[in-house]
Every structure is written in structure tokens, then in C-alpha cells.
């Protein structure tokens, strides 16, 4: 058996985004959005429509299920869109059993735990209890030292600007680092979006962009991530080969 590396010779913490990074969100989102639309008497959307209006509008404020619903409803009016979105929220929040993991998620969490990493999930999702239910359902809660959502910041549910998106991402990650007793040079941040990378660079942590979720449909190279991988399996292999540094 090889001697365990000294703490000073290795990174000590990993903070992950949830949706699109560790969690595979698409089938559930597609189901919930279409359920909400048909519940309100509207036609369901296609998978291509979902991708075009969920992922390919990554640099627009409000990207995500609300934007998909509002675009699908077109000229029916804001009140109708709000009713459909509230229907979506209820369906989504009541279906943690439909949550699934990205390939390699369990394996990389187990590996990091075995190397005594401190592991956090910092998600831009709002309702904490729903994410907690998903972690329990998927059997990975025991691998996570800390979870924070935007609800933990005491902010409102909607974001007012792209700058606010990055600012709240910075707050989530830095608060987790403080609670875990980690400095910037101890940590790498893993995400699938431009705001993950931009926030990580502001904080000064090493950034990993996984080509899943938003990054599967967008080239975020201009955000200058430190590492780009195609999957969590690739990240896992790179860590194992590189002294647990991405």
C-alpha cells in the first residue's frame, strides 16, 4: 500500500453544481413542463424545442423551465404563463423520485470520499427541501458534507440580472468553503454552465467544465475554465492519474 499523501500536497475539497452536473435533469424537466402545459390546455413541446429554449439561450436572463414555458405559450399572456409555471413547480417539487444521476456521479463521489475530500453541492436551484429529497432518493446524501441552495442565501426566487446570477453563485461557493474550512487553493469547482466558471474565477478556485447540461449545447471556452472534460468518468480518471488535482 502506498503512503497517503500529505494534506499540503493535494487538494482537499470539491464543490459541485447539481442540475446538469451531478444530476441529469432533462427527462424530468421535459416531463414536468409538458405536464404543466397540457394541464393548462396548451400543446406539449418537442424535445428540440426544449433544448433550443432551455439550453441554447444560456446567456439570456431567466434561462430554464420558465423561459421554455413562456416561449411555448407565445401570445397567451403573462397571467396564463404564470399559471402554467406554478403548475410546473408543483409537479417538479412533488417528483423527486424522477431525479436521476449523470453517469459517473456515484463513482466520483465515492472516490473523493475515499481520498478524504470535503464535498459540497452548491446549486442555483431555490427550494432546498426538494434537492435534499433528491439526494436521499438517489442514495448520495451520505457522500455530501454540505448542500446549499439559493434559499440559503435568503434571496428572492427570481434573478434580476446576469450579474446577480454570478454574484449569487459566488456567495454559495464561498459560504460552503467557509463552512468546510477550505481556502481557494484547496478547492476545485465542477459545473456545466458559464456562471459556474465565471464565479469560480472570481473566487480564485480551480474550475472544471463538464460537457453535460448547458455545456453539451454551448461552447463556454471564452469563460476560460481550467479543465474541460466530456464526462464525470473522464474527470474521475484525470483526478486518479494526476494526484487528485484536476
Structural notes for this entry:
The chain is of the alpha/beta class and 246 residues long. The chain has two domains: 7-22 and 102-241, Rossmann fold; 26-97. 43% of the residues lie in helices and 12% in strands. The protein contains nine helices and eight strands. The protein has a six-stranded parallel sheet, sandwiched between helices. A two-stranded antiparallel ribbon has the order 2-3. Helix 6 links the parallel strand 4 and strand 5. Helix 3 packs across helix 4 and helix 5 (105-114) runs parallel beside helix 9. The two termini are 23 Å apart. Mean pLDDT is 94; it is low at 1-8.
Topology of this protein?
Blueprint: E1 13-16, E2 23-24, H1 26-39, H2 47-54, H3 65-73, H4 78-93, E3 100-101, H5 105-114, E4 118-122, H6 128-138, E5 146-148, H7 162-180, E6 187-191, H8 194-203, E7 206-210, E8 227-229, H9 232-241
* CATH domain topology of the largest domain: Rossmann fold
Q: Which blocks of ≥5 consecutive residues have pLDDT under 50? A: 1-8
Kindly report how far apart the N and C termini lie.
23 Å
Radius of gyration: 18 Å
Main sheet: which strands, in order across?
5-4-1-6-7-8
- CATH-scheme architecture of the largest domain: 3-Layer(aba) Sandwich
Beta strand %: 5-15%
Profile the largest sheet. 6 strands, parallel
Integer average pLDDT = 94
Under the CATH scheme, which class of the largest domain?
A: Alpha Beta
Question: How many domain regions?
Answer: 2
What shape does the CA trace take?
Answer: globular
Q: Which structural class is indicated by helix and strand composition? A: alpha/beta
Number of helices: 9
According to CATH, the homologous superfamily of the largest domain is: HAD superfamily/HAD-like
Q: Please bin the fraction of helical residues.
A: 40-55%
Helix and strand succession?
EEHHHHEHEHEHEHEEH
How many strands in all? 8
Amino acid at each position: 500500500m502506498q503512503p497517503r499523501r500529505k494534506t499540503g500536497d493535494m487538494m482537499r475539497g470539491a464543490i459541485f453544481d447539481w442540475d446538469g452536473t451531478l444530476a441529469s435533469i432533462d427527462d424530468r424537466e421535459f416531463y414536468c413542463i409538458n405536464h404543466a402545459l397540457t394541464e393548462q390546455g396548451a400543446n406539449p413541446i418537442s424535445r428540440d424545442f426544449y433544448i433550443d429554449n432551455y439550453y441554447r439561450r444560456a446567456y439570456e436572463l431567466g434561462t430554464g423551465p420558465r423561459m421554455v414555458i413562456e416561449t411555448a405559450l407565445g401570445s397567451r399572456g403573462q397571467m396564463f404563463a404564470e399559471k402554467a409555471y406554478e403548475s410546473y413547480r408543483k409537479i417538479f417539487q412533488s417528483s423527486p423520485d424522477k431525479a436521476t444521476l449523470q453517469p459517473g456521479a456515484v463513482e466520483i463521489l465515492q472516490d473523493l470520499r475515499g481520498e478524504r475530500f470535503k464535498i459540497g453541492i452548491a446549486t442555483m436551484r431555490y427550494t432546498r427541501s426538494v434537492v435534499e429529497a433528491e439526494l436521499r432518493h438517489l442514495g448520495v446524501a451520505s457522500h455530501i458534507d454540505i448542500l446549499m441552495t439559493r434559499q440559503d442565501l435568503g434571496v428572492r426566487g427570481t434573478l434580476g440580472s446576469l450579474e446577480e446570477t454570478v454574484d449569487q453563485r459566488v456567495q454559495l461557493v464561498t459560504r460552503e468553503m467557509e463552512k468546510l474550512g477550505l481556502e481557494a487553493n484547496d478547492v476545485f469547482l465542477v459545473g456545466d454552465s458559464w456562471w459556474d466558471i465565471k464565479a469560480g474565477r472570481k473566487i480564485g478556485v480551480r474550475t472544471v467544465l463538464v460537457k453535460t447540461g448547458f455545456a453539451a449545447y454551448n461552447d463556454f471556452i471564452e469563460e476560460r475554465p481550467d479543465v474541460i472534460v466530456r464526462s464525470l468518468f473522464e474527470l474521475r480518471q484525470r483526478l486518479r492519474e494526476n494526484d487528485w488535482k484536476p
